[in-house]
Amino acid sequence: MIKSSSRRQRPAWSVLPASTDRVPPLWQALAVIGLVIVIMMVLAEATRIRHKPLDAESAHLVDINFASEAELDTLPSIGPALAKEIIRSRPYSTAEELEHVKGISKKMAARLLPLVKAGQGRRAADQ
After folding, report:
1. Which residues have C-beta within 8 Å of that of residue 122, sequence separation ≥ 6?
2. I want to staple 61 with a disulfide (CB 3.0 to 4.6 A). Which of 19, 52, 117, 120 is the partner?
3. CATH number for the domain running over 61-121
4. Mean of the pLDDT values across residues 97-116?
5. pLDDT band at residue 56 using 50, 70 and 90 as cut-offs
6. Cα 122 to Cα 15, 64, 87, 125, distances in angstroms
């Protein structure tokens, strides 16, 4: 009579050790290296998405020296009244001068700074 083993036989195609076997140090090292590579790739992709090229950023900035009231109204926390006040306070040499506009606090100006620029000269459409 053949005595059956209490251990479960693993398939012949399996290259991984069975759960009851001890995992060899080489497999452990390969698993850790693989995990580190995946984490680095995810972080690199997240950084790439977060940091757009400067040309793309500057193309989407609202120019506070030349923007219309409707364009200024698209900025967060800026309504028609503040847009008119921004237009009335022109010209600006830097975008940081927004904090001197009546109705714009320093905190609001800090939130707007990444979204605006103070262009110099005249736009091609204005010439």
Report:
1. 66
2. 117
3. 1.10.150.320
4. 91
5. very low
6. 69, 12, 15, 8
Q: How far apart are CA 101 and CA 121, in angstroms?
A: 21
Is 58 a residue whose pLDDT tops 60?
A: no
Residue 116 identity (one-letter amino acid) = V
pTM tops 0.90, yes or no: no
How confident is residue 7, by pLDDT bands cut at 50, 70 and 90?
A: low
User: Contact, 93 vs 64, CB < 8 A?
Assistant: no
Residue ranges with strand state E in 1-127: 62-63, 116-117
Domain boundaries defined on the chain:
25-52, 61-121
